[in-house]
Each structure stands twice: as structure tokens, then as C-alpha cells.
Specification:
alpha+beta, Helicase, Ruva Protein, domain 3, globular, single chain
């Protein structure tokens, strides 16, 4: 039997490791980096040599490129996606998170008008209450998306270019090491998964300790989520969503694929579509959503606050799991109090 020499085996093993590293992390486009460095030095008063040194330590991440091209919301059916987030652990841990941070949640609701269960639901969907915040270096992910967005999508490229600009500015403002912060494959940070622009605009030092810490400080995370939703138009007195009952086949033209509540609820009612949940007050703006349930299509009505959740993440499946998880947590909370 042929036996491969030990040195050859070792050489092949080492070569395979080098190959794997190169596949996972390659170099950024040097011209793009140079142009960006010049832009930051000219428009935002950064030191050009310091930025060049910084970007010499930044890698292009293939995982980021692949994940941006095919996010979970696109890969999974509604039922698959829902089952990830509406499990017993996430509901019970949501109640525990609420109990542990009840004072901060009450303060946020009074100040910003956003109910506690909505804040808890968002943090639960985003990071399992801070447990899973992402391990990718934020600078690597943002640079990869800014300079190598899959498919050359110009709108998304510009978006991530702007995020990269804002990230370096916030690191300067908050005295963060740009190479030390970690987050999701897309560069979202902390318990609340803020991108750099929302961080600079709406992250708050909710406990008054002099730092905006959305990574380890639950109070700051809670206040920042509430401030974000308030800033995006949360309405204190309006409902979020409701299951819909239908008395006849639903016209396709009534079904929304976007986040805006741009139909009149009276129109839906005239078509035999009724909200299954009663609520106080007058609500006119609504949107109808169709999702594939276990027994066929299921219909839901989203109101303006549902649209506001969509400004956190504009994917219908995301909006729906936040709303449904929040309701499950609220129901459990009430059953225990």
C-alpha cells in the first residue's frame, strides 16, 4: 500500500488551511479603499495615514457577501421562519427579561409611548435578549458590503458606504476601537442590532452612566429601541395588528407586499375582511397581509404601528414574528400577574 510521506501530508494540510482562510477573508479592492480614505480625510477630517493603516487590517468576508445575497427571510417559508422565533424558550426568556428590567421598560413606555412587550419582542427576535449578537468584526462586514456588495446593487452599495462612514464617525465620537466591535453578518450591533446611523441618531444613555452601551447594558438597549420606534412614528393609542377573518375570497389587489398601511380599514370591511381582535379608538389606516399557514392562506391586518416595526426591518416575516412574539410574551406576562 502506498504511504504518503509525513512532510507531504503536513504540507497539504497547511495549504488547505491557507486556502480556507483565503476563501473566508480576502483583500478589499485597493482603489475603493483609497477613494474612501480620501473622502473621509477631505469631508470628515480623518487622518489619511491612520485610516490607511486601519484598512490594512480589514478583511473582505465571503460569508457577508453570501448572507447579504440570500438572507433568511428569503430562504425560509413563513412557517419555517415563525418556528425559529416563536418557541417556548424565546417566550419564557422574554418574560424573564421583562421581569429583570421592569423598571427600565416602564420608564421607556412612559417616555416614548412604546409598550414594554413590543420592546421585549424586538430584542428577543434580534438577539435572544442579548445572547446572540454576532461575532463578525463590524468594520470587516461594512467594508465588504460597501466595496463588494453582491450583484453590484448601487442602492445597497451606497447604503453600506454611508454606514461605513457613520461607523468610523461614531467610533471617534464614542472612543470605540473600530477593530474591536463585533456584530451580525451585515454589521448590525449590540442587543438591539443597530446599524451605525441609527446608533448615532437614536441610541441613548438610558441609565445615565455616561455611555451608550447597547452591547451589555439592557437599560440602554431598552431605551434605544423605544426611542427608535418613537422617532419612526409610534402611536401610543393605536393597535399593532390583528388576525383577519374573511367571508369571501380575497382579491389579490388588496394584499400588501410593503410595510405601509395604505388602505382604509372601511374598504377591507366592505370586502368582507374583518379584524378578529377588538380595540378601542378609531383606526382607519391598515394593510392586509397574506401568509401561507398550515391549512392554507392566513390573513392579517397591520396598522400604522405595524408599519413602524417595519422601519426597524422592512421584511413582512420579520414584522410579523416581532408582533406575534410580543403578543405571546404579553399573554404570558398577564397570566403570571
Amino acid at each position: 500500500m502506498f504511504k504518503m510521506p509525513i512532510l507531504l501530508i503536513w504540507w497539504l494540510f497547511t495549504l488547505s488551511l491557507v486556502y480556507c482562510v483565503n476563501v473566508a477573508a480576502a483583500s478589499l479592492d485597493s482603489d475603493s479603499v483609497d477613494d474612501f480614505v480620501t473622502f473621509m480625510a477631505t469631508h470628515h477630517d480623518f487622518n489619511e495615514q491612520e485610516l490607511k493603516l486601519l484598512f490594512s487590517q480589514v478583511s473582505r468576508l465571503e460569508k457577508t457577501t453570501k448572507s447579504l445575497k440570500n438572507p433568511a427571510e428569503k430562504r425560509k417559508t413563513w412557517l419555517q421562519y415563525r418556528d425559529i422565533f416563536l418557541d417556548e424558550a424565546r417566550i419564557s426568556n422574554g418574560v424573564k427579561f421583562w421581569r429583570a428590567n421592569e423598571e427600565a421598560l416602564e420608564k421607556a413606555e412612559k417616555l416614548y409611548g412604546v409598550p414594554a412587550h413590543i420592546i421585549v419582542g424586538i430584542i428577543g427576535v434580534e438577539t435572544r435578549y442579548g445572547k446572540i449578537q454576532g461575532k463578525h468584526r463590524v468594520l470587516d462586514t461594512l467594508a465588504t458590503a460597501a466595496f463588494h456588495y453582491p450583484g453590484g446593487n448601487k442602492r445597497r452599495t451606497k447604503l453600506f458606504y454611508d454606514y461605513l462612514v457613520q461607523y468610523l464617525i461614531l467610533c471617534r465620537e464614542e472612543s470605540f476601537d473600530p477593530l474591536s466591535l463585533t456584530g451580525s453578518y451585515a454589521g448590525a450591533m449590540g442587543m438591539v442590532q443597530f446599524m451605525p446611523t441609527p446608533f448615532r441618531n437614536v441610541a441613548v444613555d438610558f441609565d445615565g452612566d455616561g455611555k451608550k452601551d447597547i452591547w451589555e447594558n439592557a437599560s440602554d438597549a431598552i431605551g434605544s429601541v423605544a426611542n427608535y420606534l418613537n422617532d419612526r412614528g409610534w402611536l401610543r393609542t393605536e393597535p399593532v395588528f390583528s388576525r383577519a377573518t374573511t367571508s369571501s375570497p380575497v382579491r389579490e389587489s388588496l394584499v400588501s407586499t410593503g410595510i405601509k398601511a395604505n388602505l382604509d380599514l372601511a374598504l377591507l370591511k366592505s370586502e368582507g375582511i374583518e379584524p378578529a381582535s377588538l380595540f378601542s379608538g378609531t383606526v382607519t389606516d391598515a394593510a392586509l397581509y397574506e401568509l401561507e399557514g398550515q391549512a392554507g392562506p392566513e390573513y392579517w391586518i397591520g396598522y400604522r404601528n405595524f408599519s413602524t416595526i417595519g422601519k426597524y426591518n422592512p421584511r413582512i416575516k420579520y414584522m410579523m414574528v416581532v408582533a406575534q412574539l410580543s403578543e405571546e410574551i404579553l399573554t404570558r406576562w398577564h397570566s403570571m400577574h
